[in-house]
Please model this.
Amino acid sequence: MAVHLGLMSDPGYWGAITGRDRVLRDYFLLRVARNERLQLQLLERFGNRSEWAGYYIPDEIDDLTWRSPGRADHMRNYLALMAQRLRTNDVARTIAVSAFFRGRTAPDIFARTLLGLTTNLAARVDALLIQDGAGVGDPPANYMPLYFKALSESWPAGAPRLWGIVELFAQTSRGKETFAAVPAQPARVSGQIAAVAPYVERLVAFTVKDYADPSRGPAAAALFQALSEPATSSAGTPPPGLSP
Model:
């Protein structure tokens, strides 16, 4: 088993990134300092463990906040500095970050924004994990592959590797209710895999532990069984390996 350890997650992140430029700059500098401190503690405790494969930066990149050049500079600088600090202390392990889209943003704009945020950095982010949005139903399923296709067609050599996150849940909460979800129907998840697989290097299941662990009941067991069976993509070829 290979493990990517997540760095410090800030519950106030979504509010903080709406702040003014100077506030946002200082916020990201503080994030870098705290995450580097956490990294050093992790290295002291687990640095010799070969199964520790990499780091996950938990600050998700949405499709709306970073469209303007000025705002984009803050996220790009943060990712560059964060990757540089992580790499200085640990040259071998990989670095990953995730992003998501909603129907409010056209596929080509989403692809162009992500490309600008994650390429030509001083230190490389190795993998970009793209959430498919199926768990919350946004965008509608028939639009989902358009976003992955736009990314795949515009993605140059040397850019972070594209991984697709297949959401295994169906959200049941609404509005400002506390988030709640149930395991998705196996047929829906099979459709997600077929739609996303042709455009990414690897698929990631989110999450087997919460929604496809057979011990969690019949719905989770049915989803686990479906994920365990061989599948083919829409192109008729086996999809990339599905990771938990």
Remarks:
- Confidence is low (pLDDT under 50) at residues 232-239.
- The beta strands are 3-6, 52-61, 94-99, 127-131, 161-167, 169-171, 181-183, 202-206, 242-243.
- DSSP finds eight helices and nine strands in the chain.
